[in-house]
Amino acid sequence: MKVKTKKEEKLQRKKVRVTTVFSVVLLAVALFAMLFPSVLATHDPLELDIVNQLSGPSREHILGTDELGRDLWSRVVYGARVSMSVGLGSALLALILGVPLGLLAAYKGGILDSIIMRVMDAFSSFPSIMLAMLLMTVFEASTLTLILTIAIVSFPAYGRIVRSSALSIKERDYIEAARVSGAKPGYLMFHAILPNCMSGIIVQFSLFTASAILIEASLSFLGLGIKPPDPAWGSMLSYAKQYIDRSATYILVPTITIFLVVLAINLLGDELRERLDPTRQK
Amino acid sequence: MAEKILEIRDLETHFFSSRGVAKAVDKVSYSLNKGEILGIVGESGCGKSVTSLSILQIVQSPPGKIVGGEILLDGEDLLKLSKKEMQSRIRGNRISMIFQEPMTSLNPLFTVGQQLMEPLMLHRGMKKKQAKEEAIRMLRLVGIPMPERRFSQYPHSMSGGMRQRVMIAMALCCNPEVLIADEPTTALDVTIQAQILELMKKLRDELGTSIILITHDLGVVAEMCDRAVVMYCGSVVEEGTVKEIFKDPRHPYTRGLLASIPKLTDEQEELYNIKGTVPSLTNLPDGCRFADRCEYCTEQCRLARPDSSDITETHRVRCFRNGGAGIA
Amino acid sequence: MINHILHSSLLKYFLKRLAMAVLVLFLVSVIVFIAVRACPGDPVLSKIGPHGDASEENYNRVAAELGLDKPYPVQYFIWLGGFLRGDFGVSLINGADIRATILEKLPVTLELLVISMVFAILLAIVFGVTSAIYKGSVYDQIIQFISTGFLAIPAFCFGLIVILIFAVDLKILPSMGFVSFAEDPAGHIRHLIMPVLVMGFMEQAALTRYIRSEMLEVLSTNYVRTAKAKGLPTQAIYYKHAFKNVMVTVVTLVGMRIGQLIGGTVVIEQVFGWSGLGWYLYTSVVKQDYPAVQAIVLLIAAAMVILNMLADVLYAAIDPRIKLD
User: Do the interacting molecules here have an ipTM over 0.90?
Assistant: First the structure.
């Protein structure tokens, strides 16, 4: 029987898509902007230059300026700090909140399961933006509170996903075997059941980061997020709206930024989903 | 002299994927005589199902594709027909098929009656009232009690055996010349199995339908079939009357299959099974495909594939060792 | 089907879901109550006003007047009782009856919601079903690409872009505002076009993906294989057999998505200057009109819970396979 050469096998597995390369590169830039904005920015994001207000792309301001003459490119770069940290932070926090609850609900079952599920149902009965708005009126707006708010909005979905994976895994024989030989519930939940839910969790993490960025943008557009003059993509757009007939660039710059970043995350998430769960139909 | 109703010549159906080309059906030829029950035997993946899907041209495409051969129904080559002609004249009309999983083969959102009336109204041009009467008559014919009630029921309120009867009714309602039954009883209880097979035999006698019965169970072949075809790895390795296959199996694979049947009277302690595994369809060897697993394998067997040779008028085999000398 | 509905197990399922819904509603009201109570600002002081008498005596009097001197659980039940009777309180800002304001704003939002959802469903059915049928084709890839694109921007961004193109550049549609149908039917429709387009296309992206994958799954089932083997024409297979099985799931899907859509109206009404319920909520939040916020949020969340429950039960009624225990 002819066996495929090692080289042929390697080539077949490493089919890298253009979209993946794009996503990784873009996200690397975004993360870099989050951590070292001063390196990428050309101006101080708060620096005024009223003479040049609402100008289009020029040699001095590569993406133009806003109504106070502040450089749009620099503001977008600094805005990444808020969006990326809120995006990643809230997805992480939601994971920390939701995963244990889901595992607990699946493992213990019975009344505890019902209660946990009803609590999660209650939180997810609110439209996301609405719940986020409600919570942001309670808290004073800051990156931390944004993270907390969006985490509260997103955690039920994590819980549900983990719970349904865990339920199907719970019934399998090797779990039963481990339990019969005296494994503690904590061990069973985290070492035996959880690893099998990981692929779902990882994919969901990427999706949540994306939706968190979208929610944060909407919140700051509504004025409930980071307060000006600190730059945030959403709040830039709420000002841009007022000058919509004077500067198209002002609208397009933050919009395209949000679009590219979220798109990159979603494409990566899709790619992950395909790789981690090859049985799925595309 | 038996009259052929369906003849397959050098049929080739390949599956194209990123891993290569799988030759699921590789120049398969056999024929079905009028009024007979022909058994197609072989293990999973040998191409027996794909061959029958090819007859009706309902192979999943992509990734599958019929790339060559002829399929003659009463002399007419089906592969030359247009899609529309296949759909309106052949499928469900002159050739019908029933499948292995009766539990999932009926649409859960339509009643049994609605699904039964479809081919009647479509192929036999019946009006609703007439189709309903005929449908109920068919249900009674396949042995379903209280057919008027069952007519308005949904599939989920029926057992597997009953659903398979409905499938048979649906397949035979337009009086097809050929019925292809792909492992119709594998998913059913043994007692129900017997009933369904009995039913099929009875209908063949009453309606004169020729049947292709695909199975991996030699016991079923012995009981039901007049002739049988043994397939391995996408090719026919032996073809003959049931008597010939069972009493004088010529291909080592056929012999292996027969030897694998556990017998109550045997004193052996271990169950016989054919050593080795089926080669991958994307990576077939140059020589005989059974070479690695064959007890009688020679050098010649590894170098080239044997052609089909006749032993009697009805018995053919594809093996170098049987080209003349035969095996003791 | 009627027989099926009258069958007792469906009724039991309905009652079970109803009980669950009541529990969830209770939890929702508690969440709203706590959240609003946790908001900054002292409503008593607001009532007294910056120039009022801030003495302890007056403070306690006003507090008692507003019912804020009682312990929290009591306050909760008083509030809940009032809400269930239809008494939503009065606005802190202008003393207007909140229920009346809600009823006034509701039709605007409902119109936007319903028309957008219908538009989105129609688009999604067309795109989802056809892209599944022509899976792998250029058409399919384009549809998928468009859906992915729409899922990557917030609704308000798309709204702004649409305004930029149609109102600012092309000048064929009015950028903002709302005109009632009674006053000016043509104008009403002109103002309706962009918001519906925006919400419709945004929503369609999510629905299309879902419908496409459902359709693909249905097309690979055994019963579709049987339909093919029976010689049914392709149109009948796709649009009679497959489609019905897909549509059954769309019912629950719509139930799930309505929530997101409602959230969308908050932002869209802000972008297009429509004074509906979403806009009312937003301004109440900004102005810290807590009684109004409380009432609107609870109302919407309660509507969501009930809608979800109804969608579940409806799905169970339509699909004869669902196990009702």
Answer: no
